Amino acid sequence: MTTSEMRAGAEPSATDKLDSGVLKVAAVVVLGTVMAILDTTVVNVALQALTIEFKTSLDTIQWVATGYMLALATVIPVTGWASDRFGTKRLYMLAIFLFLVGSVLAGLAWNIESLIIFRVLQGLGGGMLMPAGMTILTKAAGPQRVGRVMAVLGVPMLLGPIGGPILGGWLVDSVSWRWIFYINVPLGAVALFLAWRLLPRDKPEPAERFDVLGMLLLSPGLALLIYGVSNIPSAGGVGATEVWLPVVAGVALIAGFIARASRIENPLVDLSLFKDRTFSVAMLTMAFFAVSFFGAMFLFPTYFLLVRGETALQAGLLLAPQGLGAMITMPIAGRLADKMGAGKVVLPGMVLILAGLVVFTQIGADTPYWQLLGALFVMGLGMGSTMMPIMSAALQTLTRKKVARASTAANIVQQTAGAVGTAIMSIILAGLLAGKFGVPTSQGQLAATAATMNPQTHDAAAVAAADSFASTFVWALVLIAVCLIPALFLPRRPPAPPAADEAGEEEAAPVMLAH
Hints:
Elements lengths: L2 H5 L12 H23 L4 H8 L3 H4 L1 H24 L1 H20 L4 H30 L4 H29 L4 H4 L1 H15 L13 H19 L1 H4 L5 H21 L15 H30 L5 H7 L1 H21 L2 H19 L7 H16 L2 H9 L4 H38 L6 H10 L4 H30 L28
């Protein structure tokens, strides 16, 4: 099909199907991405075991998860420049290597301090895996197939939160907490070999001078912002110094970066991307969606553990219907987004999520499991129709030169908004539980846990805790509803070929060459 035919709106031909070369690249990227995403969730179910192992407090042990998240946020802004300077293939292999080294060292940790440090090293590798993988896939498939490729990449993003708690619970119960890190070694070794053999060669492009000052503003700014927000539940509110001080400092650094980036030629994050209307609308939609949906995702396992008294492994298994629903709709949504436009796919997906959340706003201590599992399945159907079509809409109109920078910006938005959303839901739930049990906000969940574990107070405590969850889910429902507003402006037509880049060449899928 010629470029003129595509501009005339001709139907995609059979050649638009994902060929074996693209599928091989997708398999490599998915394998690497699975490691990083699993590791963000698999550790959560091991925190109690780690607290006992290292004889430390829950506030300290939380840094095993928070340190990883902060490292992700810090390294993402550098990825766009590094992709241009060293090539996405080399960067992707370096990311896998760093993640592997961090995993081995974390498994060998001898105290809590060493474990936190090695988790940060893991995060430095994990933070580069997703944006680099998105860049590789988008370049390999070309703009007209990006929706289908994003659907492939979205599978680990959905299965990670489902499979992570199941795998982590089994390893902690049956093997050892160290194996939640060692499990990455065989996966990473295979991913590294396949990346070397199968990923297409890409020549490093003459990169602009590295924006050192921009990195010193943006990366610490994001880290401080997420650090402050993550302190909200333990500090008991936004008025605590350990919350507002790092948040204010982080916002000031980010504002300084934005002011500077709008005046220089080659900033660390290309703010000119937001001049593209489709990209801006997609990023605004992604921000609202990440805050609302990932905030709600935090609540589901907590409800099963706290109110229903399930084990970590059982709670992970109960979340499986959500992943199954997403697996059904995600491949279909990717194809439809390419043929019809992302807007016509995302809006129905959000309606499904809203329908599932309505059930949870009425949740009780004895709500039948079939209702809960059915609602999770419906939400999974909506999730599969939403997240990756939003991401593909952001990248479909961009030239090859801008894809790496756009992937970086999109991941910064998603990571930061998701962390903020989790904190928002945490503080709302903690405040409601504190009110029910008559304790300070920081003690709300602890008091609820103690009361539900006491046979004499269990029934009344479970009812009170379930009511707190129902009220928190109302807020999640409202935030998802707000997300519908920017989603209305997503494109409702098939993506047109991107404009010519600065070299005068139109975007096209590169020739697939194995190493």
